[in-house]
Specification:
mainly alpha; c-terminal domain of poly(a) binding protein
């Protein structure tokens, strides 16, 4: 009895992955094994860097808050301690946005934190 191979499905799978690697350089785009390995590695990088993106943005927000706080005569750690004591619970993303786009509002928050 002849061997039955589902060539339609396996070819479709290869075509799907080769389509995903279309913009890659050299053999990474059209040689099946190289393209498959590159695509799988890319998925790992994507997973890892979704986590790193959060880390990078948090660091950026802290730098922006620190720069704005120093204009008000405080360091970042002093400001965060004062905010905690004053009971102002605001995340770093919002604080950084206020520091960049609404400096008057940020000054008011710093003043309130200093008074308590």
């Amino acid at each position: 009895m002849p061997r039955s191979v589902n060539h339609v499905a396996s070819r479709a799978k290869r075509k799907r992955i080769l389509k995903l690697t279309r913009g890659y350089f050299g053999a990474r785009r059209n040689v099946w094994t190289v393209a498959k390995n590159t695509w799988e590695k890319g998925l790992l990088y994507a997973y890892r860097d979704r986590k790193n993106k959060k880390r990078n943005f948090r660091a950026l927000w802290i730098q922006r808050i620190n720069a704005a706080a120093r204009l008000e005569g405080m360091s970042y750690s002093q400001l965060m301690g004062a905010l905690h004591k004053a009971g102002i619970t605001m995340n770093r993303k919002v604080l950084a946005d206020l520091a960049m786009n609404h400096p008057e509002a940020f000054k008011a928050i710093v003043a309130k934190a200093k008074n308590n």
